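Notes, Module 5: Reading structure tokens.

Key idea: the token line is not a picture. It is a compressed description, and you learn to read it the same way you learned to read a sequence, by spotting repeated patterns. We will look at two proteins. The first is printed below with its tokens.
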Amino acid sequence: MLYEGHTNLVRSRHPERALRALFQHLAKYLPDEPNGYLKLRDLALVRDGRSILVPRGIVTWLDQLAPRLNRAGWQFVDHPWSTLDLDTVELVVPPPMLTVDGGWEEEIGVGHSRREPVAVGPGRYPLAGWGVFSAEEGVMTRAAGVAAAAGTVLNPSEFGVGETLQWLLDLAGDVPVTGLGDPYAGDFPARVMALDPGRH
């Protein structure tokens, strides 16, 4: 487990993944140069080279969600924010900003489990779905989706509020924003996995 305060950031069977995630989360305290990408507070998951975005608040239920999502092939991206290339509609997972001298993997042992996919590495992953907390379930109108998603943008000043909102409106035309409903009601993990309509 990797915690920040009382929040569980990572749940894994493999200590090397927790350590790598620690390095990634410590990097948020380093100066961050603008790179032309949209930074979001949302949490990303990847399966079969495709990605979805969910509210970062779902880490509250990580103990319940992670085992089922992992068994279905989904892995959480261990990064303190999610980065989107709006030109290509892809999640961009950057290389680690912090690295540690080699050898520690051998000391703690690197393993893999059929119950847990391997950690998500640097790369680009087409965005297939975007979920937000909402009172009702289902795909939102573009305007409602933008209103729900706009508050997760971390760097609107880099582009200007007007341009950021227009980008989100265009993005919602390609990747519908979906209300996940009440996390305590019904089959919440199934609603998360259904964000990628091409993978069930």
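Here is the second protein, with the sequence above and the tokens below, as before.
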Amino acid sequence: MVGLSIAGAASPMLMDMSIAPVIAQKKAQNFGLAESAAVLYVAQNQLKTDFNDLTEPVDECTRSGTGMAINISCTFGRDKLAQTVTRAWVMPPPPPPGQSNSGNQFSVPRPDGEYAFWRLCPANDPWGVNGTNQHFVEDGYICVPVPAQGGIDPDDDMSTWLWDLRGQGLG
């Protein structure tokens, strides 16, 4: 009789404990969905240089930002199970005038220095011309441009290159 009284008094706590793993599992699932949506959106848009060129986010996500700084917030789930993830990035600046390439005429001379296989140009400065290489000028090495980071293929579209990457030991 005493044992039943104790179990009856403790039963609300036992009920909470019994569904806690299910709640945690659903929250983790919602977090995974929110994280995936946010990371996918950033991956699709991080190299775009104009806010108007960004793709529209899915219904569960909202985009905000001023200038070149962009935030994407994704929420999955409802009420107590809702999980929100926010990712932010800075859009790369557009290339300076005269640094576009057309007709395979390279518009920028290759910077002085050797390519450093350990120094890759970042996505927001894919050629190192917007500050990356200037930051490391004292050691004589320059970053490997984004188009060359996977190796040079003879069939690569060179119309987007700022300088000739062939014959530089990057292939």
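Summary for the second protein:
- The longest strand covers residues 69-76.
- Helices lie at 2-45, 132-135.
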